[in-house]
Design goal:
With 303 residues, the chain is of the alpha+beta class. The chain has helices spanning 16-28, 40-46, 63-66, 80-92, 117-126, 201-204, 289-293, and strands at residues 3-8, 32-36, 53-55, 72-78, 97-101, 129-142, 152-157, 160-165, 171-177, 180-187, 189-193, 216-222, 232-235, 240-244, 251-255, 258-259, 266-282. The chain has two domains: 3-127, Probable inorganic polyphosphate/atp-NAD kinase, domain 1 (Rossmann fold, 3-Layer(aba) Sandwich); 136-274, Tumour Suppressor Smad4 (Sandwich), CATH 2.60.200.30. The protein has seven helices and 17 strands.
Length: 303
């Protein structure tokens, strides 16, 4: 691969040494770097002598990249939130994503920080990487400003779709699976997670950890008000419908931590998205690795 689309959040302005190192390593391998348009001002200030290439994810994939997608890859500089941002345009353009960890937890990152730039860029350039196919979950929902459920929006997520209460009072959420009622939830919220998302918000709510290659959905209540309420694992071939009554407490609808433009109540339809995320990894990467390095599994800390 010789064309890299770089995405980072504006906070990368405080880590310009990492940006300089990335540019230097890429130049040594004759790799073309394209930068997210939101970084235009940051790069103009830090590299006034350069004329970097930029891409706008709102626009169609640039022709020079479109014609050789098999040689292009998205690089993210940051934490898991940064990579989740990039998922939206990477999936749309059918490009794999490789994450450098410049954030906090970094469960989705494929490499560390600047210390790994040389090794990772060399592996990417030589094709010494593997692609993991991560499932996505889609949601169709009634849009804000419309009184009818017929005006529906669409969104997809890598981690989870979340309903969260606004203000006081419990949410009431009816969930049916392929037309069969599963439960009438009373809770602060409800999460519909992918296997990837099982180590995100759901894990903090007591949900189980699921290996990424599993073909399932995970339903996890947030602070459920029923004694017997527990997370549920379902095959991702099913269709879920969630309904929140208009007379109940309004709630937020979020995908991977981002709020959607919905009206605070109504019915949602959730299913597996037809596309996958192509997550690039070093060859020989194990899905058990982040459990050991991030959650310290296998270590005896009593000494």
């Amino acid at each position: 691969m010789d064309t890299l689309l770089v995405y980072a959040r504006p906070s990368i302005a405080f880590k310009m040494e990492a940006v300089r190192k990335l540019m230097s390593e890429a130049a040594g391998l004759s790799l073309d770097l394209w930068w997210h348009s939101s970084l235009r001002d940051i790069l103009a200030e830090g590299f006034s002598d350069l004329k970097p290439l930029f891409f706008d994810p709102v626009q169609p994939c640039p022709d020079s990249i479109q014609g050789k997608k098999e040689q292009a890859l998205v690089l993210t500089l940051g934490g898991d939130g940064t990579l989740l941002d990039a998922v939206q345009f990477a999936v749309k353009w059918d490009l794999p994503v490789f994450g450098f960890h410049l954030g906090r937890l970094g469960f989705l990152s494929s490499a560390g920080g600047p210390e790994d730039f040389a090794t990772a860029l060399s592996a990417i350039h030589q094709g010494e990487i593997e692609i993991e196919r991560r499932s996505l979950v889609e949601c169709r929902y009634p849009k804000e400003g419309f009184g009818s459920d017929e005006h529906r929006g669409f969104a997809f997520a890598l981690n989870e779709i979340a309903l969260q209460r606004q203000g006081g009072g419990l949410m009431r959420i009816t969930c049916d699976v392929d037309g069969d009622i599963l439960n009438h939830y009373q809770a602060d919220g409800l999460l519909i997670s992918t296997p990837t998302g099982s180590t995100a918000y759901s894990m903090s709510c007591g949900g189980p950890i699921i290996l990424p290659q599993s073909r399932v959905f995970l339903i996890t209540p947030v602070a459920g008000h029923q004694l017997g309420i527990r997370p549920v694992i379902l095959p991702d071939t099913c269709i879920l419908r969630l309904k929140t009554p208009s007379e109940g407490a309004a709630c937020n609808l979020m995908i991977d931590g981002k709020s959607l433009d919905w009206r605070g109540h109504g019915s949602l339809e959730i299913r597996r998205y037809e596309k996958n995320l192509a997550l690039a990894r070093f060859k020989g990467y194990s899905d058990f690795q982040p459990l050991k390095t991030k959650l310290l599994w296998g270590l005896d800390l009593r000494g």
